[in-house]
Specification:
The protein contains eight helices and 13 strands. It is of the alpha/beta class. The longest helix has 15 residues. It is globular.
């Protein structure tokens, strides 16, 4: 469907009846890493209740879905606001599982290690590894990608491929922007390394999320009536566009500073930015609400 006029809409209710399913981003839409956005999860709950539609949360979190269920519960985001979760971590696990016995160098925080639970692989040192699995920075509060330049240069020389479990470059944590695994993957590519990107905007995570929606909806599933919701232009919006999915763009996320006041963004600036990026959206809201 084409963008409606005006592009900015009051909330999800303006579009809800046109869609039988939603793929919603999590970080930047439902919470900012510090607190939940109440109107956002209320909007998804009302969508499910009033339309019978299916909501799959699709996130570049480099962890299994079970951990994201727990995280959302800790944020008091109710379980009735979504049907299921598909994570970049899930897709990464599947790729690594296809290489049993491999020595894997994990780059990322200890909290991400459960991504390997139950897999027939060995977490090894840099010298013994045959594959790099990058879930982020070891300490994303203080480190930057440049702190990894020397190590990544050595790994490129050895010809090791990198699996990136989170293609996000940055994400909001409260009022701060935090570097993510995608920033290290970009540097690794710049240095000449080979990178496999599995989360948004790449096809594998959409294949998994849409397959899960089809499982849940059965005969009601219609790919042409799935709406994607997200705040990241290079991930959420580009990924949905590449899948020919309609998009509801949440403008007060990581790009908020580009569109004027976050609560009253300038529609002309939004349209211009989308055009510059070669992207489209059916509609936009400052923050997800009903």
């Amino acid at each position: 469907m084409n963008a409606i006029a005006p592009l900015l809409v009051p909330g999800l209710r303006t579009l809800a009846q046109d869609y039988t399913g939603i793929l919603s981003d999590v970080w930047g839409v439902l919470h900012n890493g510090i607190k939940a956005f109440g109107p956002a999860h209320e909007a998804l709950s009302r969508y499910r209740a009033e339309t019978g539609g299916c909501v799959i949360l699709i996130t570049n979190a480099p962890r299994p879905a079970a951990q994201i269920h727990e995280q959302l519960a800790n944020f008091a985001i109710p379980r009735d606001s979504y049907d299921d979760i598909v994570t970049s971590g899930d897709v990464t696990r599947a790729m690594i599982a296809a290489r049993p016995g491999t020595g894997v160098l994990h780059i990322g925080a200890d909290r991400d290690v459960p991504i390997y639970d139950g897999l027939d692989i060995r977490l090894t040192s840099e010298d013994e590894a045959a594959l790099i699995s990058c879930t982020g920075l070891f300490d994303d509060e203080v480190e930057t990608p440049d702190d990894y330049r020397d190590q990544l240069t050595r790994l490129v020389r050895r010809g090791l491929p990198m699996v990136c479990a989170n293609p996000d470059i940055v994400v909001e944590r409260g009022e701060k922007l935090i570097w993510c695994a995608g920033a290290l993957a970009r540097l690794y590519e710049d240095l000449g390394g080979t990178v496999h990107l599995l989360g948004k905007p790449h096809a594998p995570i959409y294949d998994a999320a849409l397959a899960r929606m089809a499982d849940l909806q059965g005969d009601r599933f219609n790919r042409d009536t799935v709406l994607a919701i997200g705040d990241g232009l290079p991930t959420d919006i580009r990924g949905a566009d590449s899948q020919d999915l309609d998009v509801l763009f949440v403008t007060a996320g990581i790009h908020a500073a580009d569109f004027g006041p976050s609560d009253t963004p300038d529609e002309a600036l939004i349209r211009r930015r989308l055009a510059e990026e070669g992207l489209s959206a059916r509609a936009a809201v400052p923050r997800l609400c009903w």
